[in-house]
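Here comes my example:
=====
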Amino acid sequence: MGPLFYIILPATFVGLAIPFVIPISLRFDSTQRFFGVRWMGISFTKILARKRLKPPKEVPVIREKIGKPKEKPEKKKREKIRAGGELLLKERELTFELLQKGYRSILDLVRSVSIRELEGSFSTSDPMWNGVLAGMLTHIHVKNVNLSANFQNVNYVRGSLQVRPYRLVKIAAGLLIHLPCRKIIKTLLSIRSSSERRNHRGKCA
């Protein structure tokens, strides 16, 4: 190996590592319904449009057809959700384990975010709860965070956050490594087979 190899190898490593070190900047403003992302000089902005009420469409006349009525997609979807819920209740150990790991990952994600600026004001329809909210928010002492309560029924939040990609990769990798993949696959297969059995019984009936 010549001396050129010892120059190219570190340079390649540094070049691959730079994108994971440069922070991702997030900006948002609920008053303007604005959301923006900036990373490595590339910017993406999105202004969310307000939903407009559309006039009701005319309901077409549907002629009755002779024969066995088809099963509605909504009914099939409800049956799948019901089967999945029943199985998750049976697999309580797996459910609690996934919730615990998800909670820890969310905490790690929150800790990895650098708050550059965060401002918000919140209000409820009840003055009593506004007073309680004001008391709670006054005890939040975090750098670059300014949260308050108001009695004008105004709610908004704006701010700027930063997070480094390597932290996101670390959190995602840690979550995937510690996931009980075998239990998850077994549960998904059980949900699928349970749904198929329900559909088969429905067709036979």
In short: Helices lie at 3-21, 73-90, 92-112, 127-137, 165-177, 181-204. The beta strands are 24-29, 34-39, 42-47, 114-122, 145-149, 156-163.
